TrEMBL record:
Active site (catalytic residues): 50 (proton donor)
Top-level taxon of the source organism: Bacteria
NADP-dependent oxidoreductase domain location: 17-261
Keyword ATP-binding set for record: no
Pfam families for this protein: Aldo_ket_red
Protein name listed in UniProt: Diketogulonate reductase-like aldo/keto reductase
Keyword annotations of the record: NADP, Oxidoreductase
Binding site for substrate: 111
PROSITE patterns: ALDOKETO_REDUCTASE_1 (PS00798), ALDOKETO_REDUCTASE_2 (PS00062)
Entries under PANTHER family matching the protein: 2,5-DIKETO-D-GLUCONIC ACID REDUCTASE, NADP-DEPENDENT OXIDOREDUCTASE DOMAIN-CONTAINING PROTEIN
Amino acid sequence: MTDQPVITVDGNAIPLLGFGTWNLTPEDARRMVAEALRIGYRHIDTAWIYHNEAAVGDGIRDAVEAGHVARDDVWLTTKIWVQHFDRDGLLKQARESAASLGFTPDLLLLHWPKTDPSFEETLGALNEAKDQGLTRTIGLSNFPSAEFRKAQAISKAALVTNQVEYHPYLKLSKLIETAKELGSSITAWSPLAQGQIADDATLIEIGQVHGKTPGQVTLRWLIQQNVIAIPRTSKESRAAENFDIFDFELSAEEMDRVHALARPDGRLGDWIDPAFQWDREW
Ligand SMILES: NC(=O)c1ccc[n+]([C@@H]2O[C@H](COP(=O)([O-])OP(=O)(O)OC[C@H]3O[C@@H](n4cnc5c(N)ncnc54)[C@H](OP(=O)(O)O)[C@@H]3O)[C@@H](O)[C@H]2O)c1
């Protein structure tokens, strides 16, 4: 791995800044993944349901062939879609994802929690996928604290991250605490609130002090909490902007000012099964 900041979970060094690929067409995903790796990103996030795993794999191969990076220096995450949570379906998709990517992923996540099949069946199958060498590590996405704890109690292997929505307009203190207690990590999806941060007066003002943009302030605020952030962009210039966050630091007061932007209705993507409830933060 490189010398950029990482969080070490169960012996795995995961770069705190990654590159997201949701909503990128295969063409854009290949171009932007190769460009992100050229810029210096060492962590790429995709999912079966994004329909771009093959393009993401091609983008990584393009960067490797151009001499910008070695495969082993890239942390690559993909996810099991909810329709594949039964044992056979999960193992079939794990094989399919690895084949599409052309690489064994470093991390395979359960995309959203479900009541049926049981956690025992799905986590058993996820562990089997790891034991069969279809992924190096396993984890979760969109699991509230209660389900995060239950899943880790069932799983033989460490669940190295829980990837959830997190940005300045959401509070996440309870889930961050749960991840710490479990020796796991949090990965922030929609870390830029899908672009909403760009016009925020507080983030603009803090940025002016440091000569940085609202996006850079936001990503810095996340990694200073030891939270992994995976911003997405279809533009080369923004990929470079979002990577340029390692030469400044937010003060404790600035961190608090960003935390104060959180609001009860700040959630952008609430697709959780109604059987589960997000941690109560308000
Ligand atoms: N596990 C899950 O359930 C889940 C759910 C959602 C997302 N994710 C993952 O998280 C990644 C990131 O989340 P996201 O894609 O929803 O949103 P995001 O990264 O918060 O925001 C992306 C949007 O912000 C714009 N943008 C990028 N950099 C910017 C900057 N510096 N200033 C202003 N605007 C900027 C992009 O537009 P341009 O393209 O025009 O630059 C794009 O429209 C996804 O790509 C995916 O990998 C996971």
